[in-house]
């Protein structure tokens, strides 16, 4: 499997990857001038040790590349994580790359994330962020309808600006931003991927980015079963 649909029109695609659980083991064993040819139970015990004791540099010798199509509200939250992770205690990982499509250069038809009538959530009772229970269908239908109207108006004004000779990089100001889908490549070490998963699979993470994290996990776990199990925990 290399492709998983997320939300209404989004997706995660596994583009490329380098290394395996064996790569992690051999990166650790090079200190003793040793190398394994096949992953053994002894090697798996070493992976457990490395993860448990926080010896994370061997996991940075494994690289994964994804193509992601997600609403801007997800992309910006993801991007802030990527920037922060290179400075986070215990990660030390700057081996990341992010390249995103831009409406300065493309004028393809904009696509927007529109929650269904049963997907709108209430604000939490005891927190300044996050969300609470799902709102009733009646409220949800009204919100979905209002959002669709808002998007339609923005797209009309965007297209009118383009037709009137406005440059694409300014015409995009008329587009409702946070729900608009954007596409990007994310290339990161296995350590960084697992750091992302550990944080964004948590129950208090925003649901939409949780859905993308689940897709990243499903695509990545078959490639690095032992490393991912130890880095993010058996309960995920």
TrEMBL record:
Enzyme Commission number(s) from the entry: 2.1.1.148
Listed InterPro entries: Thymidylate_synthase_ThyX (IPR003669), Thymidylate_synthase_ThyX_sf (IPR036098)
Any matching Pfam family: Thy1
Domain of life: Bacteria
Single GO biological process annotation from the record: methylation
CDD domains, per the entry: ThyX (cd20175)
Assigned keywords, A-Z: Methyltransferase, Transferase
MF annotations from Gene Ontology: flavin adenine dinucleotide binding; NADPH binding; thymidylate synthase (FAD) activity; thymidylate synthase activity
This protein's name: FAD-dependent thymidylate synthase
């Amino acid at each position: 499997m290399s492709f998983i649909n997320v939300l209404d029109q989004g997706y995660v695609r596994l583009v490329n990857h380098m290394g395996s659980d064996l790569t992690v083991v051999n990166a650790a064993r090079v200190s003793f001038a040793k190398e394994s040819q096949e992953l053994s139970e002894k090697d798996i015990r070493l992976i457990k040790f490395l993860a448990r004791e926080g010896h994370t540099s061997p996991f940075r010798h494994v690289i994964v590349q994804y193509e992601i199509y997600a609403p801007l509200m997800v992309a910006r939250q993801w991007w802030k994580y990527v920037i922060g992770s290179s400075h986070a205690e215990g990660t030390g990982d700057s081996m990341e790359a992010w390249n995103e499509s831009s409406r300065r250069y493309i004028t393809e038809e904009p696509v927007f994330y529109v929650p269904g009538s049963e997907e709108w959530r209430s604000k939490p009772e005891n927190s300044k962020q996050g969300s609470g229970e799902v709102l009733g269908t009646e409220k949800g239908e009204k919100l979905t309808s209002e959002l669709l109207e808002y998007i339609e108006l923005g797209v009309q004004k965007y297209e009118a600006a383009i037709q009137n000779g406005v440059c694409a990089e300014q015409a995009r100001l008329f587009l409702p931003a946070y729900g608009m889908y954007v596409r990007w490549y994310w290339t990161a070490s296995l350590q960084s991927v697992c750091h992302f998963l550990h944080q964004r699979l948590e129950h208090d993470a925003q649901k939409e980015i949780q859905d993308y994290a689940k897709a990243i996990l499903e695509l990545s776990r078959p490639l690095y079963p032992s490393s991912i199990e130890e880095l993010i925990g058996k309960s995920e």
